[in-house]
Amino acid sequence: MEVYRNNKWINATPTHNERVREQESSGAIVEYTFIDRGNSSELIIKLSNTIVTSPNAKKIGAIWWLPKDEPFTITANAEGLPDSELMVMVERVINATQPIDDIRFVANIQNGQITMQGKFEQSGNYIITAERLNAGLERIGAPFRLAFEKLEFDAYVDPANNAV
Fold first, then answer.
1. Are residues 47 and 24 in the same domain?
2. Measuring CA to CA, which residue among 121, 131, 120, 130 is closest to residue 153?
């Protein structure tokens, strides 16, 4: 196993969040970010300072209101996550809890910050929960789980644009 340190590959024991590469039995060279699980079976990453930006988004109570079809960006601190991408499942719900559908967005993780861009093409109530994302992370064998408060959105028909 080689570790990328000081702009070169060296034979060494990796530490948490270092780039490593190793040769598979097939001969293929595989590069990845090493996650040190320590004594725990999984690493819990707490997302913090979550911000939703969109031209007309407003937070009413705990729910973000925004017009359907309006682009939005969600950012949050994700200290401890390596630079990568993450599939985010956003569930369309009824009664704020019962999923009836979902949408997939790809979030980018760079320098300890996660960023997701998207838009809701249908009016309705949408949620992003750690429980749903962690179920997906478990399914793919990811070495970490996420902790964050539920994000809830109401995508509405904007009467100014007569959008239906």
1. no
2. 120
- Determine, yes or no, domain membership for 70: yes
**Nearest-angstrom CA–CA distance, 123 and 120:** 7
The CATH number covering residue 102 comes to 2.60.40
pTM beyond 0.70, yes or no: yes
pLDDT digits (tens, 9 = 90+) for 130-155: 999 999 998 888 888 999 999 999 99
DSSP assignment letter at 150? P
What distance lies between CA 130 and its chain's CA centroid?
10
Distance CA 42, CA 35 (A): 10
Distance spanning both ends of the chain, measured CA to CA? 56
61 and 141 share a domain? Answer: yes
Q: Within this chain, do residues 25 and 96 fall inside the same structural domain, yes or no?
A: no
Place of tokens 């109401």: 154
Bridge pairing between strands 124-128 and 113-118 = unpaired
3-state SS record for 77-120: ECCCCCCEEEEEEEEEEECCCEEEEEEEEEEEEECCEEEEEECC
